[in-house]
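W.,

You were right to be curious about this one. When I first looked at the sequence I had no strong expectations either way, so I just let the prediction run and decided to look at it fresh. Below is the sequence, 90 residues in total, followed by the output.
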Amino acid sequence: MTLSEIWSLVKAVLTGLGASTVFVIVVFAAFCVLVGLTKHRKIGKASLVVRSLDDRLGSSARYLSPDVPRGPANQLKTPELLEQSGRHGS
């Protein structure tokens, strides 16, 4: 192999890698743009685009106030803890 053959081989490999890299980046960018555009559709129960479960159910999030007990038992107000805090307070 001569030096010019090696140089043309290296040039062809770099051209192929560059072209495939550019192609993959263009496909990825196009996919991101198309997926991003679908997010600008109308939100609601009848919409085909579902971004979250809240979207599908059509209800907004309800937040509990800090003094509302969480679940079937409030772990901070169990009889054992109330009894223990009563002993330390007297």
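Here's what jumped out at me. The CA atoms of residues 78 and 84 lie 10 Å apart. And, maybe more interesting for your project: Helices lie at 3-38, 53-57, 79-89.

Coffee later to discuss?

I.
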